[in-house]
Specification:
Blueprint: H1 8-21, H2 29-52, H3 61-73, H4 78-85, H5 93-101, E1 105-110, E2 113-121, H6 123-147, H7 150-168
Antiparallel strand pairs: 1-2
Helix pairs in contact: 1-7, 3-6
Length: about 170
Amino acid sequence: MALMGGSWCSFVSASVLVMINDAEPALDTRAALSAAVALRRGVTSLGRRLRLERTATAMTALDLSVLGHLNRRGPLSPGELADAERVQPQSLTRTLAGLQEAGLTLRKSDPADGRRSLLAITEYGQAALRTEMQQRDTWLATALAAELTATEIGLLQLAGPLLERLAAG
């Protein structure tokens, strides 16, 4: 689809920037639903593809997610980790014990409340997490460069923080 005076990608990029700068919420629910369906399909497909790129390690997706929370947010209580994962704290018991036994995390007393424990990622845990992420990041960067234009890559760069904001909400 060609537009006068520019490419379709430039038009889309400019449109996205206008939408991002628009402080008013979207009122067209049909357009929002259409975008939601397309986004869900794309994110699901990409997530599935990224899971295929995982190394053959003993770490589960939940192990990696817990390590990611600890790496980004610092020491957290088991309850805070459960909230972040949107599960009951009892559901994490085995995962947390396994990560600690493997030397990926350590448990320490909360300095503000000695009755409460906090979990922290160890240097070994950070290295393991980096290794896991690096392989998938490398695959994704290669795929982006091979399949998308610079404008499309720029759009995805803008979308990353928006997707994180949606996920946190």
